[in-house]
Specification:
51% of the residues lie in helices and 13% in strands. It has 13 helices and 9 strands. A 6-stranded parallel sheet has the order 3-2-1-4-5-6, with helices on both faces. Helix 8 (165-193) packs across helix 12 (255-269) and helix 11 runs antiparallel to helix 12. It is globular, with a radius of gyration of 19 Å. The two termini are 37 Å apart.
């Protein structure tokens, strides 16, 4: 049975994307270097692929991977999704460097493939609910094809420009999210120190200028030290580092982004790369500073 779309990378985000695609009637062929991740995907109804190339058998593949070198290997390495064979639409939903993305798109085009960068906002919960916001980069024709593939997981898709433009806009998104998450953790720590009810505080802030989707989704999670993983510290470190580098390249000072990056990096130094963003609370509250509280 041919698959409608392949998915390469079955971490928190990739698995959520697979689940949503299956729930909305898509046939999915899934690949990951972790056999257990593939087993979970097949148990949910996906077909197993032995390589990224096999995942792309139907001519469309989604990549959901942690960094640019892994994206490059999955796309252009031996048995890569864009290494040989018929024309493939590669939709990279990873968050990686815009310059690397532009180079990958050129390399894919030279081999007859299309490349669309489609980094996301909304995390795994957004993918499962079908309301991700996607920032798309690529040619008009390739983006039009990608929209049809991504419709089940996204409620908003914006074509930001040529290949790499989506990744640049994602960095802007992460600047807002990373600094706001750090602020939420500071507020949550003060709420805990004063013995306030997080639900009451959230209700009091709702509708005012401090209200936001981040407040609604994450504030109580932070204040209650809920370790359930919806987004990993390591990914935010990578994204905030990318943003600060973009600021240096453009000669633009980014003091708030830099401070947020350093708080996240402190967590990374404590072995919390795999922890949820709520672990930011550990920076401020000694009662939850034990890394073991945040790691499953």
């Amino acid at each position: 049975m041919a698959a409608d779309v392949g998915v390469v990378g079955l971490g928190v985000m990739g698995s959520a994307i697979v689940t949503r695609l299956l729930e909305t009637g898509r046939r999915v062929r899934a690949f990951d270097v972790n056999p257990d991740a593939v087993a979970r995907a097949t148990a949910a109804g996906a077909l197993a692929a032995s390589s990224p190339r096999e995942a792309a058998e139907h001519g469309v593949v989604i990549l959901s991977l942690p960094n640019a070198p892994i994206v490059e290997a999955a796309a252009f390495g031996p048995d890569g999704a864009a290494s040989e064979g018929a024309s493939t639409l590669v939709i990279d939903m990873s968050s990686i460097d815009p310059g690397a993305t532009a180079r990958f798109a050129e390399r894919a085009a030279s081999a007859g493939h299309d490349w669309v960068d489609a980094p996301l906002s909304g995390g795994a919960p957004g993918a499962l609910a079908g309301w991700l916001s996607l920032m798309l980069g690529g040619t008009d024709a390739a983006v039009a094809r990608a929209r049809a593939v991504l419709e089940p997981v996204a409620s908003r898709m914006t074509h930001c420009g040529p290949a790499g433009a989506g990744q640049t806009v994602k960095l802007l998104n992460q600047m807002v999210v990373g600094t706001a998450m750090t602020a939420l953790a500071e507020v949550a720590a003060l709420v805990r120190a004063n013995g306030l009810d997080p639900e009451v505080v959230r209700e009091a802030l709702t509708g005012g200028r401090a209200d936001s989707p981040l407040l609604q989704e994450f504030f109580v999670k932070f204040a209650s030290a809920d370790p359930t993983v919806t987004g990993r510290i390591a990914n935010m470190v990578k994204d905030l580092d990318g943003a600060t580098q973009a600021g240096r390249d453009a000669g633009v000072p980014l003091p708030l982004t830099t401070a947020a990056a350093e708080v996240h990096r402190w967590l990374s130094s404590r072995g919390l790369d795999a922890a949820d963003s709520a672990a930011l609370l550990a920076y401020y509250d000694p009662d939850v500073a034990d890394p073991g509280l945040w790691l499953a």
